[in-house]
TrEMBL record:
<dbReference type="InterPro" id="IPR018098">
    <property type="entry name" value="Ribosomal_eS24_CS"/>
</dbReference>
<keyword id="KW-0689">Ribosomal protein</keyword>
<dbReference type="Pfam" id="PF01282">
    <property type="entry name" value="Ribosomal_S24e"/>
</dbReference>
<dbReference type="InterPro" id="IPR012678">
    <property type="entry name" value="Ribosomal_uL23/eL15/eS24_sf"/>
</dbReference>
<dbReference type="GO" id="GO:0006412">
    <property type="term" value="P:translation"/>
</dbReference>
<dbReference type="GO" id="GO:0022626">
    <property type="term" value="C:cytosolic ribosome"/>
</dbReference>
<protein>
    <recommendedName>
        <fullName>40S ribosomal protein S24</fullName>
    </recommendedName>
</protein>
<dbReference type="GO" id="GO:0003735">
    <property type="term" value="F:structural constituent of ribosome"/>
</dbReference>
<dbReference type="InterPro" id="IPR001976">
    <property type="entry name" value="Ribosomal_eS24"/>
</dbReference>
<comment type="similarity">
    <text>Belongs to the eukaryotic ribosomal protein eS24 family.</text>
</comment>
<dbReference type="InterPro" id="IPR053709">
    <property type="entry name" value="eRP_eS24_sf"/>
</dbReference>
<dbReference type="GO" id="GO:0044391">
    <property type="term" value="C:ribosomal subunit"/>
</dbReference>
<keyword id="KW-0687">Ribonucleoprotein</keyword>
Length: 133
C-alpha cells in the first residue's frame, strides 16, 4: 500500500482585500487514517514557502471509502491580517484568541456578595417584579 500523503490544492484564489490566498485542499491518504490538520499546515507551509502559523485549514470531509479528504484552507500574508480577518473560534484553535471565563464561579461570587443584603424592605415589591403575575 502507498502510505504517502499528497496534498494537491485546487481553485487557488488570491484575495487582495483580505491579504490572503484561499484554496480547496484535497488530501490523498491511501492506506492511512485521516491526516492531522497540523501535518496539513506544515506541508502547505513548505509548498507555499511560509510559516504554519499563518495557515488556517478547516471544513474537512472524508469521502466514502476513505483515501481522500477535501477541505478548505487560507494562507494569510501576515499574522496581523489573520487576527484581523479570521473568526474568533478559528483563532482560538490556534491559541491566538482567549475565550472569556464562562464558568459559574463569577456568578456565585456575585451572589455571595449580594446575599447579605436585607430583603425584608423589598418583600412588598416582589409581586410587582414578577412578569408572570
Amino acid at each position: 500500500m502507498n502510505d504517502i500523503v499528497t496534498i494537491p490544492t485546487g481553485k487557488l484564489m488570491t484575495d487582495q482585500l483580505l491579504q490572503r490566498k484561499q484554496m480547496v485542499i484535497d488530501v490523498l491518504h491511501t492506506g492511512k487514517t485521516t491526516v492531522l490538520k497540523t501535518e496539513i499546515r506544515e506541508k502547505l507551509a513548505k509548498m507555499y514557502k511560509t510559516t504554519p502559523d499563518v495557515i488556517f485549514v478547516f471544513g474537512f470531509r472524508t469521502h466514502f471509502g476513505g483515501g481522500k479528504t477535501t477541505g478548505f484552507g487560507m494562507i494569510y500574508d501576515s499574522l496581523d491580517y489573520a487576527k484581523k480577518n479570521e473568526p474568533k473560534q478559528r483563532l482560538a484553535r490556534h491559541s491566538l484568541h482567549s475565550q472569556p471565563d464562562l464558568s459559574e464561579a463569577p456568578f456565585e461570587k456575585a451572589v455571595a456578595v449580594a446575599a447579605p443584603l436585607p430583603l425584608l424592605p423589598l418583600l412588598p415589591l416582589l409581586p410587582l417584579l414578577d412578569p408572570g403575575v
